[in-house]
Amino acid sequence: MKLLFTLLLTLCATIALAQQESAIWYLGNGVKLDFTASPPAVSGTGGLGNSPQATYATAQGKLVLYANTQGIFNGSGQLLRDGAWNSFPAYAWHDIIIVPKPGSSSIYYIFYVGYPPNAALSLCLATVDMAADQGKGAVLEKDRILRAGGENILASSQCADGSYWVVGQVDNYEDDLLSYRITAAGISEPVVSKPVSSRGSWAYKFSPRGDKMAFSYDEFHIGNNVILKTCIVDFDQTTGRISNPIHLNEVDVVDTEFSADGKKLYIAHPNSLIQYDLNSYNLSSILNSRQVIPTASTRFLALQLALNEQIYVLQRNTDPLPINSPIGQPIGSAIMGTIRFPERAGLACEFEQNALFLTANPFPKLPIFPTNLLYSPPVRPDAGPDQRVCGSQTVQLGGKSQPAYTYTWSPATFLDNPNSPNPTFRYTGSTLTGPTEFTYTVALNDGTCTRKDNVTITVAPGIEAPTIRGSRSVCPGVTAVDYQVPPVPNATYRWTVVGGQVVSGQGTAAIKINWGASRPDATVTLTAQNQFGCSSTASTFSVRINPVLKTETPNGPPTVCLNQKDGVAYEVINTNGSIYTWAAQGGTIKQGQGTNRVIVDWSGLGQHSIWIREKSTTVDTVCYGASDTLRVNVFRDPTTISLTAVSVGPSSDNEATVSWSLSQPLASTQRITVLRRTAGASAWQEVAQVPATPASYTDKGVAADDYNYEYQLRTRNNCDEPLETTLHRTIRLAGVARPIDDKLDLAWNAYTGWPAADTRYELWRKVDKEEAYTLLRPLGSGNFSLTDLDALVGFEHHYKIKASSTTSGLVVWSNELDLTFEHPLVISNIFTPNGDHHNDTFRIPKLELYPENELTVFNRYGKQVFHQKNYTGNWSGSDLTNGVYYYQLFLKRLNTYHKGWVQIAK
């Protein structure tokens, strides 16, 4: 009994009108159909061999590779490296199909039913890489058995989760259909379906969308008793379950096929062609829609949907061919018919029986393709036409909105809403140097499938609307008045004047205008265009033509630093022919009187003023005007800078943090110079130049254990006058350990920078494993050393000096001083427990520093007479006689034993 497999490929594939991966058909015996031509071109350049032929092309219709029972070949007909196989007999009826690996541009899977070495007929897999072997292609794996048994395979897409499905019927007369999901992780356990009672099945086809299957099957077969049926079933694109059979009254079926929209089903008998309408998907409607498509004498062999949405019918002619048929087409030769409009009902489908005459008799099967390449969705994604914009201009993407669908645009950059059917694009990125392309993909989802389309937006650098500079008030009849804009390289300019005439400079960034008679609404308008063809918005400049001139207020600094009061420039836009008379109160016009620009020396601090009188004489008119007064304040910059504190640390003794304050902000461009020197040196070293804010800096180039340092800050105020702080000196703490008498001595210097009377000092300490410093004692303001500090509190001593200002509340720290003591034990060898309260117990000085200890005492016979953990010096030996005893003392801190003898003398 044969096992029929159906391979369902799930790919979220892009369905586009130009998609031509299935454009090349190889039919065997050299017969080739090329669907990049219209009508399809027939030639004898197809793959050789009398067997199934599988092909796959690029989206532009260029053949990438093909496979038959001889091997796997590239688009040039070269056998791939390791592409030959012995999986097929010389003549085989079994199918082959090629599908691309999702996410890869060069890897392809080839599914086939063949004979792997030392195995029976099986569903097999081969993997090829068309980028390998210098682009000639190579086989990575072949003859991988997916399922023993089988004869036919098909492929379809269903856009659910990107996996494959293998569907088949088991042997041993069982009616189970098994769906195997194939993912990158391997093959799952099968999903079992029992849509019909079946002994064997054939003529399998998936609808292009992959949600329906049609096939014929043998329901019962004992001896000569055969019951053949045909049905349509649902295929769950997520779970792999097959269900809901609709039985059709069709037997002796050769092949089945769906229309591209999935709404019509065609069934080929050996000598007839039947159509069913699936729009109303219920049994009675489908059965009542049955129509016989008229055909002449012929024998049908196979049906296959093509990318042009027509169904091609492989047939053998049983009558003499028409007079206009090619020579050499005898009765029994193969020809191709076509159903031109498969989505139409009945005769309107236009079956053309002898549409194509083939160059030879091909193999009696047509090639099969993943039907996602053939699906004609009801709505196609439309990203809209490619467009070109300038600068930040907006443009709308997309086509007609479909409310029942969801949209996702990627990337989302520069789109106002990436989930809109028609998002607005606006470039807001960095300045472009030339036209730049941005490609966007819209993904259209109908709840199951996602299809995509692309659009390219070319953004050319824009040009800003130019700002026109020139005279706003002119005398009637004045000539050669200048108007201009900042020039842009390679730009052209179009000037338009109302009330006057451009006499020179048209097309450039600067022109001269002859103005006419008096009018209040004269204008100068300019549009600029850059080298990329982008035009600016129009700039319009209003001009008043009148004998009474509205002279411009002087343009210059209204505030002047006292140290910069001389040589200050003031000006107005020059109008050809005008004479300017300047006047200044509190200042002297040093040069430029009579022109549009003067230099002024201001007399000193305070409020001053400057203004102009203007006169212009034309052929028949004398014009006068006076400006408004510009008030000028000459001031002294009061900014001061103070170095407030310099503290060692906080993270390390190799850094010092410098803090300061400003009486008022400096300009954002101003920098503060941090200077440092070791105390007592004369030369300063520049440490850094930092912004004025934040008001601190950490200098990481110090050695505060070895030196104390002096710091100073320098900068310039907003009037460019130098500012300098007083110096601050850090605190350096030094000390020595005196292990013989378990004491230590400390010494430090005073902090310089705050008044001595306002500075308070404290000694802070942490010992051994303590994590934080704690205050040990306040220090006298005039005392900068301590002696005879007790060292018996621990082994590792850490000290810091803290200085604080009683006026500002600021705090600084010294370096950290580390001193280490070993505190060795000195154990006496006699004690006298006689009750005189002197040497009455076996006391060990400093043992309190070793709290985790263990003391064991033995007599001279080795008998233990005393034992105590964490011994504190309380053993009196009161129950023992005088004599010598032997002890063993374990100290956990040192992981050592002290052994010796001690005498009890009462």
Automatic annotation (TrEMBL):
Residue ranges annotated for the PKD-like domain, each copy included: 465-540, 554-604
Organism, scientific name: Hymenobacter wooponensis
Keywords noted in UniProt: Signal
Protein name (database record): Gliding motility-associated C-terminal domain-containing protein
UniProt signal peptide: 1-18
Keyword Signal attached: yes
InterPro entries: Ig-like_fold, PKD_6, T9SS_type_B
Keyword Signal attached: yes
Recorded superkingdom: Bacteria
